[in-house]
Amino acid sequence: MAEGRHFATYPSLNDRTVFITGGATGIGATLVVHFYSQGCKVAFVDLDETKGQAMAAQLGADGCWFRRCDVTDAAALQAAIRDAATALGPITVLINNVANDGRQVAAEVTPEAWRETLAVNLDPTFNAATAVYPMMRDAGGGSIVNLSSINALIGHADLAAYSAAKGAINSLTKSLAHAWGADRVRVNALSPGWVVTERQLELWLTPEAEAEWQKLTALKDRLDPDDIARAALFLAADDSRMMTGQNLVVDAGRT
């Protein structure tokens, strides 16, 4: 936390059950910690069992649930959601975070690679949402936050399939918000800019690339996973109770 800065606590999140996809590393791990710190009961899934188990052990057995899950397996993902609800209580906050932003030369993307990219970046968002919707409806409402990306808005030469998936998430967010609004189930998208994670630093975020990025942003500080998690907390909490079908962009003011 930056020195001298103070951030919000959301009483409405206390004791709510939250389900997070891709919660063992990167932005997902930060989401898990932030929601747990708000007093939530947090369930999360990830392919990385070692890091997932370590995260669960760090937080403690009380109010934390983890399962290794391949989110491209719709039946397995929906089973994990049902089992998490049995363990922690009905899920009233869903954070669709899981993604893979691997670079691909657009002209070289095969039909198989296209399908694989959508299978991890788009399909789990719908499959998880439809699994939690009955729980939220029966509970009198809930909040779904779909992690999109500014790449859906600006495009990226080497992220054609990924950008297409994120654009679809923006449209899906609008559709589900209208479909489920009468049941007080809110559905919003959250679009990060270039967030500094270990993966980005290892693969793409060189000092030169970061300098070029900051030429395009109004705010010159780094975007950290904490910045995204705090926006997700707001969208999940009652403070945003009249927001639905929206896309909240957190990108340091990229032009």
Q: Can you walk me through this structure?
A:
The protein is an alpha/beta fold. The chain has one domain (13-197, 225-249): Rossmann fold (3-Layer(aba) Sandwich), CATH 3.40.50. It is 46% helix and 16% strand. Strand 1, helix 1 and strand 2 form a beta-alpha-beta unit.
In summary, what is this structure?
The chain has helices spanning 26-37, 49-59, 74-88, 111-121, 123-139, 151-154, 160-180, 198-203, 207-215, 225-236, and strands at 17-21, 41-46, 64-68, 91-96, 142-147, 185-192, 247-250. By secondary structure, the protein is of the alpha/beta class. The chain has a seven-stranded parallel β-sheet, with helices on both faces.
Give the SSE map.
Blueprint: E1 17-21, H1 26-37, E2 41-46, H2 49-59, E3 64-68, H3 74-88, E4 91-96, H4 111-121, H5 123-139, E5 142-147, H6 151-154, H7 160-180, E6 185-192, H8 198-203, H9 207-215, H10 225-236, E7 247-250
Parallel strand pairs: 1-2, 1-4, 2-3, 4-5, 5-6, 6-7
Helix pairs in contact: 1-10, 3-5, 4-7
**CATH-level-4 superfamily name:** NAD(P)-binding Rossmann-like Domain
Write down the domain tally: 1
Q: What are the segments in which pLDDT stays under 50 over at least 5 consecutive residues?
A: none
Shape: globular
CATH topology: Rossmann fold
The number of distinct helices, counting runs of at least 4 residues, comes to 10
CATH architectural label = 3-Layer(aba) Sandwich
Please describe the biggest sheet, giving its number of strands, its sense, and whether it closes into a barrel.
7 strands, parallel
In total, how many beta strands?
Answer: 7
- Rounded mean pLDDT is 94
Rounded radius of gyration (Å) = 17 Å
N-to-C CA distance: 26 Å
